Amino acid sequence: MNWQILVPYPHPEDSLATVGELANTLEADEDCAVARQLVLSGLMAGLSTAGQLVDRIEALDTADRRQLLDAARQLAGLEPTGTVEARRSFEAATASAQITAAAESLWKTCPADGCNAIPVNDSGTPIPVDVKRWWCRAHRHLVAEGDMRPRPSRLRYAPSGAVIERDPDEEAREARAEERRRQVAEERRVERAVEAGRTLRADKAAREALRRELPPGIVL
Q: What would the DSSP string read from start to end of 163-185?
């Protein structure tokens, strides 16, 4: 994720006190707290204007800016950026895993809003169904094309002849990698052809130049 260091000011000559007041107008509470801490650190460093503070920040490389941001966040009682990134990455991975599990699980619930109906047999016992999305009888009119069809088999034959479970994501990655290898091979073939053409033209030009310099009667 991308991080920003926000320093609100109308003019570079504005005092750091003005920047501190404008910090309260920032939309996010975290940005407000960080900006105030940056003002305090600027004052402690002997700075007096918004422009000086911005120049100080812009003079830093990416790693030092991240360190400055983390220091300001710590003083403001906020989590370090690395901790926030790790948590959001974990949450995103968890949400993705839950979506995948729900899509691939044989135990379904009706996806209609407010409906938690589940598939059952004639005796009322819950049963698994191997479909993309299962809809109860009351909401069958919402079925999209392919929802209630059996999902493609997840089994395939390995090169050894064994039957193994397919991994669509892995197969997609392999297909993309194979396509990239094909593109690289084609690019190299074209480069070799272009280089060979250049060499041929250079040789021809060299022979023509030499022929012009030879005495009459000598043919190459």
A: EEE--HHHHHHHHHHHHHHHHHH
Within 13 A of 78's CA, how many CA atoms are on the CB side? Answer: 20
Which residues are 126's β-sheet partners?
120
Name the amino acid, one letter, at 218.
I
State the amino acid at position 172 in one-letter form: A
SS3 label, residue 217 = coil
The token pair at 42 is 């600027």
Rg (CA), the chain: 33
In 10 A of CB 97, how many CB atoms?
Answer: 10
* Spatial CA neighbour of 49 closest among 7, 5, 16: 16
pLDDT at residue 165, as a whole number: 58
Amino acid at 83: T
Q: State the Cα–Cα distance between residues 119 and 109, nearest whole angstrom.
A: 7
Residues 6+ apart with CB under 8 A from 139: 110, 112, 115
The SS3 call for residue 120 is strand
What are 161-215's pLDDT values in tens digits? 554 556 666 777 888 888 888 888 888 888 888 888 788 887 777 777 766 765 5
Rounded CA-CA distance 140/128 in Å is 18
Q: How many CA atoms lie within 13 A of 100 on its CB side?
A: 9
